Amino acid sequence: MAAETLRGQDEALTLLRAALQSGHIGHAYLFHGPSGVGKTRAALYFARALLCESKGEDGSPCGTCDACHAVLGLRHPDLQLLVPLPTFSSEGRTERQAEEARSEARAAILSRMATDPYFLPIFAKPGVHSVEDLARAKQFLSLTARREEGAKVLILKRAEAMTPPAAHAFLKILEEPQPNRVLILGARQVRALLPTIQSRCLHVRFRPLSTETIAEVLVEQRGISKPVARLAAATAEGSLGRALQHFEPPLDGTGKAVLDEGEFSRLRALALDLFVHPREPAILGPLRRGRLDRDRPRFLAAVSLALHYYRDVLRCQIMGERADLENEDLRRQVVADARAIAAGSLTQRVRVLEEIAEAVQSNVTIPYAVASAQYRMAPGRT
């Protein structure tokens, strides 16, 4: 992976290249920005440069030595990449079985990330970094590097997923820096981390990607048709990883891919039935028919589709009925809703859906979230 393949992150790449060229490498970096925009990809590029056996005069990795290939395959002995995993603790599963399940999930994720660093794992339950994970990381950093005076690199993906004990364990690692040890944290939001962790890291900001960039990758790398790629990109909120996630099943076998070519229109129609033109007062029927009642990624995709429909309605209200729309094939319906829905009501509906998405991501049950949304968006309340 060359740095040039990291799309849309010129500012971050400039900072990293300057550090490599000067040789002034920090002890800890905090790569922050939305999920799926290239933080892990950039971290692996930086790790390649630090571990490369034939780096260029500007400090860039050669891309051809054994070390560079080992980093790309996540096999280098001086590189460790930690990803948050569910605890897998449930009734009837022993502690040993739960740990074995975590190990299997970790191996599956790293195998996928070796070929696609934008890959975002999907699980039915949110993943965490446990204090045991950080103990293993500390042990890794204490080992001698393969090359004399060589570096060791620890990448902590989604650092905000550390449990409180794990966060304090990581803080101790930060407070006792070792020579030639580089820590790279990835996080969606800086404020989600302990202030004492934030202050001990050099910050590198990653920005949302453009809809055009995401759509291009979906078409070029996944062979997805342009109309589906365009709307999947528009609903991804600037995250290539999230757009790709629409087409991936959960790793733990709890569901199917959120979207495919045939599924896209059905999911959008269901989103409009639930959140724009509710046809049934009861919510469980439509949710179950659409497999949304327990499938969190699929439900969040439906919410995102509804949000982008409302944004098309808002475009028509502000820019006129000939405005460019993401849902171009629904133009007549969008125009009709732009005439029928008051601007204040439209703004409130968008706000409610954004809050519902945030609530479901925080483990509020989906039926409750939908009932709350429909109640708050009912006539007379918006």
Automatic annotation (TrEMBL):
Signal peptide: none
InterPro entries (UniProt xref): DNA_Rep/Repair_Clamp_Loader, P-loop_NTPase
A GO BP annotation: DNA-templated DNA replication
Pfam families: DNA_pol3_delta2 (PF13177)
Domain of life assignment: Bacteria
Residue spans crossing the bilayer: none
Protein name (record): DNA polymerase III subunit delta
Organism: Eiseniibacteriota bacterium
